[in-house]
Batch of 2 targets.
Target 1
Amino acid sequence: MKKDKTKLNLNRRNFLTGTATLAGIAATASVVPITIANANHSEGKKGLPDFISWKDRDALIVHSDKGIETHRSAIGESLITPNRNIYIRNNMPTMTDKQIGDRKKWKVSIEGVKNPQTFTLAQLQKLGHETMATILQCSGNGRGFFEHKPRGSQWKTGAAACVLWTGVPMKTVVDACGGINGAAVYMTSEGVDHEPTGLDPKKAMIARSVPKKVYKDAMLAWEMNGVPLPNAHGGPLRMVTPGYFGINNVKHIGKVAFTTEQSSVKYMKSSYRISPIGKKGSQYPSCWEMPVKSWITRPTDETGTVKAGKVQIVGVAMGGTKKVRSVKVSVDGGSSWKKAKFIGPNLGKYAWRQFVLETTLSAGTYNIASLASNGSDKQPELRMENRRGYAHNGWKDHSVNITVV
Amino acid sequence: MKTKKFLLIFALSFLLNTQTLFADEAKMAKGLEIFNETAGCAACHVLKAAGSEGNIGPNLDTVEGLSYESVMDIVTHGLGVMPAFGEDEILTKEEIDIVSFYVANSVTK
């Protein structure tokens, strides 16, 4: 029998759809035609994959066609990060217009409430309307600074954005369903972007449980910075969990359930757990609340040499789930600090604040750092070492070296 | 005498080099087989050299900093929905070495 080496054996993907071993291959059924999977990822003319060809290539660093972050200096200048600059980090392929279908008819089911029911997007839009600003930040933002080279996208500062969401508050949805069932402890959101792939939901579904209390400030959002939520960012509808890491803001949302247990899918049980290097398991804390954090956005080693004299040191600062209270800046690697001024509008505790320190620098090299506080916590100097390089908020790694001439 | 010695060394080194060449070629061929068949990498990844067009994981031709070591690390331990081919014993250590070698030498830079 002549073996065709270039023939693709799609059946081999079945170990993901059924059992963990190759032995299950014969028994499992579904094989996804590659044409569906292929639909939106070919490289466009701008050096960006097709599905995000509308973004600004110059503002972005492409780690792969699936991991794209914003340049340090392309964040924060106008407080809100424009859609064309926002990072991309999707665990599943972005859903296409065809897979989404009629957006107004997109469905999300609500469970673990007195009157469980399903709403279409059109119905949700009649139910309530609110706008709020939050930070979208990948759990692994800052992973690129860890010395033990953890697996995964090597983000520095660019897997973060400050976004204005428009949608219906979860509180409103919950009220419309008669309230949450007494025993529930978590709000569990499930995406449907894994469905077109045919992969086993236990391994591929993005389902994230967060503490129930998050529902009070959460939102089902259909607009991002004033435009219909782009597919690449979870359109037509996603969960927004303010102050919580990006993964919890489930894209392409299909269900919100108030549950007594955390979801048992891989993306909840084993992935996104903050554990010591060399250890892993579901007993470790999940990537939930974002810690207080800040970083300088200009000048940086990227923005070129600085002219001696008056310098405006600019950055962004966030408090996580609490309001950010203060930021101080050092130009000597942390030996001395000066309090920076908050500038621009205050969009609430879940957004970031822009800050500025005006100072005079003579010729030389400087290590500039920022250190934010939210009242109860401030940034540590060093990173909190963990296996997968999550939740980095150490000020030292986030410092920048500049040359003043 | 000198010429004979020289010719001998030349012939020997030529032989050894072609042996390595043949060994590499065989490894690449085996790697393609693991990529497309045994492990099913093709189902989830684009890799031009393998003719694969999967769209679950990243297009391997676009992955920044891809190396033999980084491929081996991810294939062994998995990442997100990508199985831990090593930890879960889906591939043998030898197969992982071969497919990592194959991918690292196949990506279009």
Target 2
Amino acid sequence: MTPFGELWDRSLRNLLADAGRAALEDAGIDRVDSLLVGNMTAGMFVGQEHVGAMAADAMGLLGVPAARIESACASGAAALRLGFFEVASGAADLVMVCGVEKMNDVTDATDALAAASDREYEAYYGATFPSLYAMMARAHMEKYGTTVEQLNLVSIKAHRLGAKNPLAQFRREVTMKDVENSPMVAEPLRVMHCSPVTDGAAAVILCPLEKAKDFNARPVKIAGIGAATASLALHDRTDLCSLEAVRLAGQRAYEMAGRKPEDIDVAEVHDCFAIAEIMNIEALGFVPEGKGGPAVEAGETDLGGRIPVNMSGGLKSKGHPVGATGVAQVVEIYHQLRGESGERQVDGAKVGLAQNMGGTGASSVVHILEAI
Amino acid sequence: MPSARYSREIPARYRIEGSRCKKCGRGALPARKTCPACGSTEMEPAKFSDVGTVLTWTRLHVGASFMTLDTPYGMAVIETEDGCRLTAPLAGADAADLATGMKVRLVLRRITEEGSEGIICYGTKAVPA
């Protein structure tokens, strides 16, 4: 995984090469049977499509079959899921999955990101992503009594943990006052409730479980995968403050892994906005519907809490290079399950969950990983 | 924007014309072959009411790039009295009056224009009823 941030000296090509070569070196290999790249919209951010071929070229893997996989901000996990199925099908033994996004080379990333909403019936009218999540936040607050202070606490926790993550974009803690005084973006969401614009890449190597020890002394197992969709436009959802795609994806992943929410020791969830972390921990069954806010307030999702969430600093503090995020979440869980996350380590973590989400929750992919 | 891409959406954007599910009554905008609520394929053409209620809303202080001159502006998810859902900007209301449950009327308004020789883009906005 590359550092996340405003990487003015790194191009899309450099990021692919940095993350890809590091993954190959770590596994001690110089080729893979297949390369999948999670990327939302290099076409809009830097005018470059055909990112699969670019990745193969940049990583020195020419000849390898390669393709770019897109599911908006869930592109990284969507690519990982397909990589898993390539290995499971027997078609490939070694698959590299790389997530990448270069977002700082455009002046208005918000307009490019609006492509993940309904272009003709949301973005056309001037609805931006912060405004769509703001409307979900308001619906959640009015239905369940969730408070702005609870949203603030999500961001404060993210920054406290991100400050301990050497690869995070914002390695500094913030106070309640910092969040309260940050500029309003879309009521009730302020700048400090929103994930940033980030450059970065992350890569992992997949192989059959029985061969894993040839490449890694302490490999991590993908025990469950679930993916699902919900309506593209927020307004078409019967319940405006419940993430049905996340609930379904979680259910499918738990079923495949033979696990329950209470088995999860550590989780990375898609906190593109503070309200999303609250809605996601509900949809994944960590807390009952509507109880996400009080759970954050009680410290249940903090390091040392009942279900530690986003020990990486989350999208808020670690950064959110959209296509890279799903892979980076799994990299964090990998290190947590190997006990090598330093000051952010969840003691004795054996089962981890990573949840990636596209748009306003129109798609989601959940992975459950286990230490072996 | 190519004129065909624009004109295709005129029935839904100018006149709130879509389709309605014969089974559960839920409206769909633009018209669909399947119901977004119950999945039924029995859909009939429908012209929806211009009277609706705000289900949730926000006020953007950082807006879309083409809305700079209008910022801050309101945005809402609205349900018409005959069961059609849509997202629309809130116009002509004081910030203090914006509220969930607020009654609105849907009106045709200019949304943006594509430079001095491009299309003038119209669509539905919500004003206090």
